[in-house]
Design brief:
Strand order of the largest sheet: 6-5-4-10
Oligomer: single chain
Distance between the termini: 41 Å
Largest sheet: 4 strands, mixed
Helix content: 40-55%
Shape: globular
Strand content: 5-15%
Amino acid sequence: MSRLPDVRQFLDSWPYDPENYVRLERGVDGREIILVRLPMGLEEYEVEGRPDGKRVQDSESALEYQQTRLKAARNAGAEDAFKIGAADCIQLFDEGTLWYYRFLHFCRLKEWVRVERDTRWNLQLLDFLKRFAEQEEDRAQLEPWRPDLMRVNAVARAMIVLEKGQHDEALKIVRESIEGVGELPKNSRELAELLLEELRGPLTRYPAFGPREDSAFLLRGDYWTIRYQGQVARLRATRGLQCLASLLRRPGKEFHVSELIAEFAELPVLTEVEGASTPASPAPFPIADALSSGPILDPQAKAAYRHRLKDLREDLTEAEGFGDWERTARVQEEMNCIAEQLATAVGLGGKKRPVGSHAERARSTVTKRIKDSINKIGQVIPGLGRHLSVRVKTGYFCSYNPLGGSGSSPIFRRLCR
């Protein structure tokens, strides 16, 4: 994607304004791009092709790639057997979300030709999924988008011809495609105002994925009760399921491995999730030498870890928002150090042991525990296992990324520790 020469100059010269946060600009290579001003930084969208500028299997988009597969199946006389599996559907859901956000930005810029193009693309995606998705849930997942997509597409088509002076053609589009608009004005300016008013609702509704009402991930005594798409399973409580629950509780948020290891030691470091209290005067943060002897996780050390991890999380969010990668690397390095110290304190098997563990072993152990838990879930509820295996990311930073990414509706309405 095209990069602007100095992001900081835009942050300084373009303060965040909820009424004016989208622009068309030129990148260093002269290509037109969309810039979206956020409270803590910028987002960039390509104007043409896939909004993030990526290619999928040498195709312009995941949809184009799947359409190519469908064409090959037709040529081989195997169209009836052509299906889109869960992992491919999730990729298409994510891609559709990119196009959805881009057409919303184009609406604010009144780029009607591009609005029409992107809404038409998304409607084609919905039709494709409705016909070829293997699972019923996947076939229906994006259908709630359809009314707004059709309305915005009709408004864009009407605005295109209206700007060309074709008032009667605009009226025809509105009558045929938009329900409940009432009496239509004969004045072009008033018609344009009416069409813009039709966008008020869609512009305030962002793409979302509705969770199943009956989905649950609940700890009851020594067992987790998991309910998903009408299936119910009970699994004995493990540290892996505990880590997984932490990720599910905050979809889209990245947890450093140190924060998850802290769960092993029962440290309430995730104050915004766990409701942990904050001591008025935190103890000095313990360094490695201080952990080399004596009680490693006394109450004072717990409070210090809790405060330091909270501060580092805030620093990391701020550094990433401002694109300060040097500061980001420093914060991540310190979090890795904490991971090593916590792993030393509790032991990878859950028992206290001598100092000397490495952050890499902490990472690999947390990864293994989470993946083992997902495998166990998959044995009893295959659909949920497939979903989690694709949407849970592990490593030094772990996260659960539901359909549509950060801020999307979680798939579990009822979830507790």
